[in-house]
Design goal:
Elements lengths: L10 E6 L7 H8 L5 E5 L12 E6 L2 H9 L2 E3 L2 E7 L5
Antiparallel strand pairs: 1-3, 1-5, 2-3, 4-5
GO molecular function, one term: mRNA binding
Pfam families: RRM_1
Protein name: SRA stem-loop-interacting RNA-binding protein, mitochondrial
């Protein structure tokens, strides 16, 4: 059971075109400019040792997610593609 006043809901975006040299912590830090980030998932390829170039950012509020969706994202020299995550994974 969730503590009173604490929301378990997460408002996610799906991020594509993440440069290979970006770490999860850097991606999380970048997206905190739009609001509190509850989670950052950057899946790795076990064969290459690098992430797969896509991931998910989970915001604490819908407003934070919407703010992130309104902006074009240039990060580490790449134009990120940020889309609303419609379904729960």
């Amino acid at each position: 059971m969730a503590a009173r006043g604490v929301s378990r809901r997460v408002f996610e975006v799906f991020v594509r075109r993440i440069p290979w040299n970006v770490e999860e912590s850097e991606l999380r830090e970048y997206f905190t400019q739009f609001g509190p980030v509850k989670k950052c998932i950057l899946p790795f390829n076990s064969e290459t040792g690098f992430h797969k170039g896509f991931g998910w950012i989970g915001f604490a509020t819908e407003e934070s997610r919407n703010n992130a969706l309104l902006k074009d994202h240039m990060f580490e020299g790449s134009q990120l593609e940020v889309k609303r995550q419609e379904k729960t994974r």
